[in-house]
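re: ur question from yesterday

yeah so i grabbed the chain u mentioned. its 118 aa long if i counted rite. heres the sequnce exactly as i have it in my notes:
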Amino acid sequence: MLDSFKVDTRQQDSIWIFSTYGYINNLGGEAIAKNFNEKHAAGGRKFLFDLAGSKIINSIGVSYLIEILEKILESKGELAFCNCAPIIEKTFKIMGITQYTKIFGTLDEAMNHMREKA
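ran it thru and got these structure tokens back, copy pasting raw so excuse formatting
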């Protein structure tokens, strides 16, 4: 179903990992932003979005991620993505998101990179 969305969050090694499940549209983007804002306000600065469970994103979903990216850049934080479907990765490149963040093939690759930058 395109209208069902879920995001799970957990912290590991000072990195907040967001695992998404479903279509990242206005509802999905809002759920991600709500979780992000809570973690960011509490001092979180490293965020990793594991999109393995999301195969598609629309423009509203992208706009939420851009707002999150802007907040992370303002606070000198770090954002990375992993397990992106090819269409999502292409969308991120077109929208310029990849100029400010990295996309990794796996969760392990992303975690290793973010740990090294600590």
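noticed a couple things. The first strand starts at residue 5 and ends at 12. also The chain has a mean pLDDT of 95.
anyway ttyl
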